[in-house]
Amino acid sequence: MKQKRKTRRKEQTAAPLLSYGIRFFLTAALAGNQILGGVAPFALGCVAASGQGVGALAALCGAGLGAFFLMDFADALPFMAACTLIVAASTAFRGNRILTGARVMSVAGALLFLSVGVIYVFDAGRPSEALTMCAAAAGLVGASTWFFWPLFHAEEGRNPAEGVLFLTATLLLSAQGLNFAGISPGRMLLSVLLACTAFAHGSATGTAVGLGIGLTADLCAGNGNCVLTAAFGLGSLLCGRHARGQRWRGALSFLGGVCAILLTTRDPASNPLLVECGTGMLLFLLLPDKLFQPRRRALPKAPKPESAKRLKERLNRAASALRDLYDNCALDTIVTEENPAIIFDRAAERACRNCARCERCWQDEYGTTFQALNNATPAILDRGRALMGDFPQAFAGRCVRLREFLAAVNAEVSAYLLRERYRRQLDETRKAARRQYAQLSELLSATAAAAEEALPASQHEQPLCRFGTALRPKRGESVCGDTALSFRTENGLWCLLLADGMGSGQEAKEESSLTCRLLRQFLEAGIRPESALRTLNSAMALRGEVTGSFTTMDLCMFNALSGDAAFYKYGAAPSYLKKGSVVRRITGISLPVGLRDTGTEPDVTHVHLDPGSFAVMISDGVADPAQDQWLQSLLAGWDSDEPQELAKAIMMESIRRQSSLDDRGVQILYWPAAKFPV
Question: pTM to 2 decimals?
């Protein structure tokens, strides 16, 4: 126990010492990275980011060591003065969390350096140029403080990766002055760093980092043409376009961007850059793939599921709210029709007001005038305009402004008919909206009812069914417009869908496939079939107003545990049940889906199947409903238990008996003799 305590104490003592050592040696090394005439902004940023207390003193000592060995006396004096002011300010701010944060210290470091640098500006030969360089160096001091801060203050919650990237770039910038046969290893490694950043984070981040590092590299090297800024920025931009893709494409793009910039400059000092970047891209390609794989983040813990009872209550409340909304909207269903007599009143106001016989026609002989106009009204409204012959001779003979009156009547008739059409459309829109509220309420109620329904224990405990399907396109078409689907819901219900799109070919196929897909989604979500079909009918009616298309829908739902089945039909052809030699026919009279949204219910037929029964669904191209005796005879005489063979036999007999004027579809369910108690 004592040994463990000693080890723990050593670890607790070694951790801060290591942190202080990093501050010391890092600041000393960065003091050698001098730009803009002897300024070391990265070392100043490291001092400002070191905080207060012993850490700040360690950074200050490191700055003094670096200034002593790596700087001239003229440059070391303002450098140390700025470092001392920064440490003094951080010490004075100690205890105040707001004043010792990354933002405040970044601004304070830049301003304190600027206050020292301004003193030396006026001694320069060109004060304006010196002031610009001093301001640029102050900006670098603030940026360095901001990026170095998360390296020394993990409790701030910032990602230290940006600080590591910035630190790596500054150290490489310090090394770019080293040359071997004219080649700079620092710039070579900088190109690798930029390619990695752009390839991992994309063009936006890569370009920003490339321009920043390039500009700093130009300042360190004293380049006035900004070749490195343009080359690194364009190369990173092009490399980032292949982020997370093929690395060799990113490397070639980076090298191509550098070549494009070098072609625009005649500075011989820039020639080694091509060799440096080319070598850097080779190193970039040799890096392991693990560096570019995104880190897996721990998945958040899933919230505890709501109890079925509470979920049901919430859904029922939402359904009740929508039902109340429907009931309140239903109060506004009375549409007051406009009296057609207003047509003649307004026409007389325009044509007869200044007529000399106005008083005679509309007062003395009002009864005769009213009778003449009333008799002409039906013909005028039916035709949409008035003619001379619509008025009796007694009225037309005494009217001295008949043409003006006729023109005014026609203008008022057009306006009247437009108003009536608008009222009818508004009424239909209101009714459709109310139906949607009611249907959504029914969907929520159905979902709430299904929330507590127990699912079957397991799939293998339920009797299985077999299916047969046959589709045949219309003659001259390569695609069948009918769609057939068979699937099983989570509640254990077998579902068979057969849809026939209007017309034939690809357009009909798209309509029927869309209808089946939407209905399947509703049913698999636990929505009751009546609510699902009504909602689908309303939605497809809106689509039909644009496309002019409609689709028949035939749905069979079968419970293999109880033997109960239900057939739902919207404009579908008859279906047939076969047990032995007995055949039953199931029909419906509803219109197809999407043809008209009148809120009509689908035709529903509930039946009970015995083991060994067939349920046969066909589209109207297979057999004429008035002449399907041959199909019933074929079913009655069929003695095999293979539904697929039966589907093929029905299709072949249909082709033999009648021409291919429409698409054909057959969907069959067969319930084998039960080996389980039903």
Answer: 0.42
